[in-house]
Amino acid sequence: MQKLLQERIYSLSVLLVLVVLCASVIFPSTFLTFENLRQILLNLSTDTIVAVGMMILLISGVFDLSVGSVVAFTGCLTANLMFFYGVPVPVAVLAGLASSLVIGLMNGYLVAFRNINPMIQTLAMMGIVRGLALMVSGSGIQNLPYWFNALGQSRLLGIQMPVWYMLLAVSIFSFFTSRTIFFRRYYYIGGNEKAAELSGIDVRKMKMYAFMLSALLAGIAGILLSSRLGAALPTMGRGLELRVITAVILGGATLSGGQGKIVGALLGTILMGLVSNLMVISRVSGYWQEIILGIILISILWADQSLQKKYS
Amino acid sequence: MKNVRTLKRYAALILLTNLSCELPPRDTNKAVLVQDAYRTETSVEDEEYVMITTAVSMPMYVNHDQAAFLKWGETRNVKVSILGPADWDVPAQINTIEEVIGTRPTGLLINGTDPAIAQAINKAVDAGIPTVVYDSNIPGANHHAFLGTDWYEIGKMQGQEMARLLNGKGKIAYMGILGLTNMDQGFKGLLEVLTQYPDITVVGKFDDKANVQEAARITSDLLAAHPDLAGVCGFDSNSGPGIALAVREARKSGKVMITTVDWEPEHLSLVKDGTIQMLAGQKRELFTWYGAQFLYDMVHQTNRLSTNDAQAGITNIPAIINTGLIRITRDNVDEFLKP
Question: What is the ipTM score, two decimals?
Answer without folding.
Answer: 0.81
